Here is the input.
Amino acid sequence: MTTLKNDRFLRALLREPVDTTPVWMMRQAGRYLPEYRETRAKAGDFLSLCKNNDFACEVTLQPLRRYDLDAAILFSDILTVPDALGLGLYFEAGEGPKFHKTIRTEQDVASLPNFNAKSDLDYVMNAVSTIRSALGGQVPLIGFSGSPWTLATYMVEGGSSKDFRYTKQMMYAQPEVLHALLDRLAIAVIDYLNAQIDAGAQAVQIFDSWGGALAHREYIEFSLNYMQKIVAGLKREKDGRKVPVILFTKGGGQWLEPMVATGADAFGLDWTTPLNVARQTVNGRAALQGNLDPATLYGTPASIEKATKAMLDDAYAHGEKTGYVANLGHGITQWVDPANPKVFIDTVHEYSAKYL
Here is the structure.
């Protein structure tokens, strides 16, 4: 078993002492990097990039060659699970992900095939083990999945949506059908994340990208309850080390109190929740991650440094010494100058040391 050279990311998630604040970026392997665009062009299309072991490993490692990051995240897509359930994922230029089939009825849910992550998504597990080996213990590897609610929105709508018309219609008119779908997805995600952990993922994150579109009671019933079920079903230790679990609901900072009850180790925050308030709310019961506005990286080096320092001041305003991972409040965008993330990352490491 390869010794982990830099484990501050895992330590911070478990609220253990760290020498400096760990930092990584959601979507850190992506279109803002010219080397990523070059590799994607070689692959031919996005799905081919995900399904090719060598390409998936290469793009995962690319940001680590440029920046002093404290974690790598598996290069994949949250929609691999619905694709494996037979919905037929494809991507249209300028329109994002789409499915050939949708789930709109009780019969549609009942007709979903059985799911086995290790066989149905073997290319993901192969990528995890390949990346873990290639990292050589440099930093931990994060595995991930979409949340049941977020996956369900794509499956019901047939792709991306601004108003979630069909999903919310199902939620209010036929809640039993949506619950049946969410339950199937929760079971699938448990299997999927446990398979990633078996393959070598050292932490996992659940991306609840669209949880913030729900009303407060509906968020608890249709999103958080299913994430809690997933957390309860996950392997929390591997090779003698704890495997931390991060929940990230974009637009969900107001639900931190019920989130803590899920038993997850950490919660991601977007840029709308004051970090000092969030720290006060969780009160040492969990770690937090985030919450720099990704658009900050369009700024000058001076403005990026100023915003990053302000975020860190908020993170440590109550005297905590750990339990915080610096990150963006959502994924880095394709229009960011690749020089700018270095300012963010280096500022985190240099400035936060004074608090620790």
